[in-house]
């Protein structure tokens, strides 16, 4: 092969290794890693530390692969939205074909390796999660219904359930409630974001609730889902993975979250515009802390259990 | 005698190739580690020599 057969033209936007990493949505991956690790560590029994590390890595890569598939399919709308136009495909650094190939390859690899390292229930759940995010959410719901993120949020809620299945080989009330916690948390989290990132979704034509039903309805929905979230979050405290630490954290965090949702409901657009969506932005930031502290408290209960301190 | 000058293409893609190389090394190490753990957890049962059958 001669140099003449290689593409040697200088391309200012040529992909670097970091661009391929960016395809995997590292920030989303960090949430996946954390919740999956908590699900795994809170599960009764245990696995070899290396297998636990390997399983969480597979779950993270599976999550990243679904992110790459999402970026491949959504490249057209990512080009329009301010928040996403710097992503590797719309900016021209990675070709859509490369993103698709990486997404499919890593999906297959992560599922098979997780199955070999742990069990096929966990691997099946990971495969379903990737399918759910890439096909059900990205290709179907996202551009079709304003309830897109309600159902699509399930994809982000599976990791603790997968972590639990790695150890137990099955599904139980505790893992279903951990799933429900993230599932119910997603709508208020994203709708708060949609309230202060409004122009992006409108321009891209994504049927976000703020666009289809108006901002007043969105504010009501934020409160409604925050109310529905509270019993799930507090109920988890009475299961085998809960305990006084978790329950105290859940009661305080849910009271504050409800107060935030109530504040969002009481505001009108003029007030929000006047202070540049201060309350909505604060609620969004608090939602991240909310989820982190809930899973952190489950982890604390599990970590203290060997000393007879955690749990009921 | 001098070494041939490195092509501009290689310089441009150095980071990408280095990253991919490291990923492959990590992957091989992980599979090796997985094999060691799996084998030590479930030792291979060899058939007994001269057993009564």
Automatic annotation (TrEMBL), chain A:
GO terms for molecular function: protoheme IX farnesyltransferase activity. Pfam families: UbiA. It comes from the Bacteria. GO terms for biological process: heme O biosynthetic process. NCBIfam families: cyoE_ctaB, PRK04375.1-2. Keywords: Cell membrane, Heme biosynthesis, Membrane, Transferase, Transmembrane, Transmembrane helix. This is Protoheme IX farnesyltransferase. Interacts with CtaA. The gene is ctaB. Belongs to the UbiA prenyltransferase family. Protoheme IX farnesyltransferase subfamily. It is found in: Cell membrane. The keyword Nuclease does not apply. Its EC number is 2.5.1.141. Carbon 2 of the heme B porphyrin ring is defined according to the Fischer nomenclature. The chain crosses the membrane at residues 28-45, 51-73, 94-114, 120-141, 148-170, 176-196, 222-239, 245-262, 283-304.
Automatic annotation (TrEMBL), chain B:
Keywords: Membrane, Transmembrane, Transmembrane helix. It comes from the Bacteria. The chain crosses the membrane at residues 20-37. This is Cytochrome C oxidase assembly protein. It comes from Pseudooceanicola atlanticus.
């Amino acid at each position: 092969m001669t140099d003449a057969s290689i593409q040697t033209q200088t391309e200012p936007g040529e992909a670097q290794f970091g661009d391929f990493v960016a395809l995997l949505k590292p920030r989303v991956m960090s949430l996946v890693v954390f919740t999956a690790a908590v699900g795994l560590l809170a599960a009764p029994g245990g696995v070899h530390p290396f297998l636990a590390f390997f399983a969480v890595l597979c779950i993270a890569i599976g999550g990243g692969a679904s992110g790459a598939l999402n970026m491949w399919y959504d490249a057209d709308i990512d080009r329009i939205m301010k928040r996403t136009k710097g992503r590797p495909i719309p900016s021209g650094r990675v070709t859509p074909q490369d993103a698709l190939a990486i997404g499919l390859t890593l999906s297959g690899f992560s599922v098979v390796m997780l199955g070999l390292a742990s069990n096929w229930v966990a691997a099946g759940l990971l495969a379903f999660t990737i399918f759910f995010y890439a096909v059900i959410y990205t290709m179907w719901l996202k551009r079709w219904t304003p309830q897109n993120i309600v159902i699509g949020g399930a994809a982000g809620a599976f990791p603790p359930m997968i972590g639990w299945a790695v150890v137990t080989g099955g599904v139980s009330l505790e893992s279903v409630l951990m799933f429900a916690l993230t599932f119910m948390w997603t709508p208020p989290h994203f709708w708060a974001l949609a309230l202060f990132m409004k122009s992006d979704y409108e321009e891209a034509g994504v049927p976000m609730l703020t666009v289809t039903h108006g901002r007043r309805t969105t504010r009501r929905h934020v409160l409604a889902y925050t109310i529905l979230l509270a019993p799930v979050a507090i109920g988890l405290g009475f299961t085998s993975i809960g305990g006084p630490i978790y329950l105290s954290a859940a009661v305080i965090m849910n009271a504050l979250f409800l107060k935030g949702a109530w504040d969002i409901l009481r505001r009108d657009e003029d007030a929000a515009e006047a202070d540049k969506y201060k309350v909505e932005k604060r609620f969004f930031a608090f939602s991240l802390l909310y989820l982190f502290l809930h899973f952190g408290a489950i982890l604390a209960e599990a970590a203290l259990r060997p000393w007879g301190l955690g749990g009921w | 005698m001098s070494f041939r000058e490195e092509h501009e293409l290689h310089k441009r893609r150095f980071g990408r190739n280095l990253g991919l190389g490291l990923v492959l090394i990590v992957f091989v190490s992980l599979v090796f580690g997985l094999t060691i753990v799996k084998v030590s957890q479930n030792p291979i049962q060899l058939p007994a020599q001269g057993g009564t059958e």
